[in-house]
From TrEMBL:
Organism of origin: Anaeromicropila populeti
Name of the protein described by the UniProt record: PQQ-like domain-containing protein
Cited InterPro entries: Quinoprotein_ADH-like_sf (IPR011047), WD40/YVTN_repeat-like_dom_sf (IPR015943)
Segment forming the signal sequence: 1-22
Keyword entries, A-Z: Signal
Length: 296
């Protein structure tokens, strides 16, 4: 079983303890009196392309494998350190570990009774997810990276559950926000759950493109495209990964204008992280580390 499933089950057992300890840590509680959280409409759980989307022909990146090496499965930190890689993430307050994290002062660590569950950033924005525990993350707040002013607060509750799923697997099929990025006033956001695709009738692991001017969906990928912890935008291509135990594992390249798959590359196990550094793309999977070079 993959390590993310083991982590999921461990956290699930600790929810009651964590919830009470979080209240005792003195985290800032911030309500959205002046910052309205907008509820997003229920998305399609299939490929979708809006007539508003401006589609452009795009070619897949030419990725050449430079190395492929087995890893020790639990040595994620060593992989980042050895390759001098960063993920642009913050440590959020963790009541189970009694740590306050390193989220910048001014960022809400509590939002409308929901705790912060993840925080990451780019040069323009800080993205924070919120839920009732660390397994969840369905509200997304986007802050200006310089002023820390909240720019968007979006509630993705309607994205959490597919229309059909195995009832006995209800506790495991909630799809949370994994990663987000804004480019040209379009929000790209990934959602997935951490169990087998069959548990949600193969309706899992999407990236959705949202027009921030009116919060409408421009496109949504087909299912089973992105359950990696993050995705990377390289020019007009989105790099992401999908895989799971006893399921096909691929590195996907998507056309950023319509969400369609340009190319998929087989990898040995499910992708956890994708990091671009110069012309190199580092891909961390469950049991294998890859280094690709973007060849022009």
């Amino acid at each position: 079983m993959k390590k993310r499933v083991l982590i999921f089950l461990t956290i699930l057992c600790m929810l009651t303890i964590m919830g009470s300890k979080y209240q005792d840590m003195g985290v800032i509680e911030a309500y959205s009196e002046g910052n309205k959280t907008v509820a997003m409409d229920k998305p399609p759980f299939r490929y979708y392309l809006s007539g508003k989307a401006v589609t452009k022909k795009t070619s897949a990146l030419n990725l050449k494998v430079k190395s492929s090496k087995a890893n020790n499965i639990t040595d994620d930190e060593e992989w980042f350190t050895k390759n001098k890689l960063t993920m642009n993430t913050y440590e959020v307050p963790n009541p189970y570990a009694d740590t306050l994290g390193n989220v910048p002062d001014g960022i809400d660590t509590y939002w409308n009774d929901l705790m912060i569950t993840a925080a990451f950033y780019d040069s323009s924005y800080i993205y924070c997810t919120y839920g009732s525990n660390f397994i969840e993350g369905y509200v997304l707040n986007v802050y200006d990276a310089k002023t820390l002013e909240i720019m968007y607060s979006l509630d993705f509750s309607e994205y959490r559950y597919a229309p059909d799923y195995i009832k006995g697997d209800y506790d495991y099929v909630q799809q949370k926000i994994n990663w987000a990025a804004i480019k040209n006033n379009i929000l790209y956001v990934s959602h997935s759950h951490s169990t087998y695709a069959k548990s949600s009738m193969n309706k899992n692991a999407y990236i959705t493109a949202i027009d921030l001017s009116d919060r409408s969906i421009l496109w949504r990928t087909k299912a089973l495209v992105c359950n990696s912890y993050n995705f990377v935008i390289v020019n007009n291509v989105i790099l992401c990964g999908y895989g799971f135990t006893a399921e096909p594992d691929y590195l996907y390249q998507l056309n950023i204008s319509n969400g369609k798959v340009l190319k998929k590359t087989k990898v040995k196990s499910a992708i956890s992280y994708i990091v671009k550094k110069g012309s190199a793309v580092y891909v961390r999977t469950y049991n294998t580390d890859y280094k690709f070079k973007i060849v022009k």
